[in-house]
């Protein structure tokens, strides 16, 4: 299992609409990815590691797939549409994308 994380950097002056991201963007993405998508989640950044510090990321979206190939095949036909939706929830920097192998979960 792999997890693809889209990490949106926090910026004091950038907008990140977590409500839109959770109620529209991520469910819409999930509907287009179909059965290749094994699960998804979305997070809102609330703080950094030091007391009183800002979060490193304003928000994050996570997608689960069986493999990198399954992710690539599912996302490729929709990449432009996904990218075109970004201005609806943020005017900040593009996300940092990381693909990880899930080694343990509960």
From TrEMBL:
InterPro entries reported for this sequence: Dimeric_a/b-barrel (IPR011008), EthD_dom (IPR009799)
Domain of life: Bacteria
Domain EthD, first and last residues per copy: 18-92
UniProt-listed Gene3D superfamilies: 3.30.70.100
Molecular-function annotations in GO: oxidoreductase activity
Protein name, UniProt field: Ethyl tert-butyl ether degradation protein EthD
Organism the protein comes from: Caballeronia sordidicola
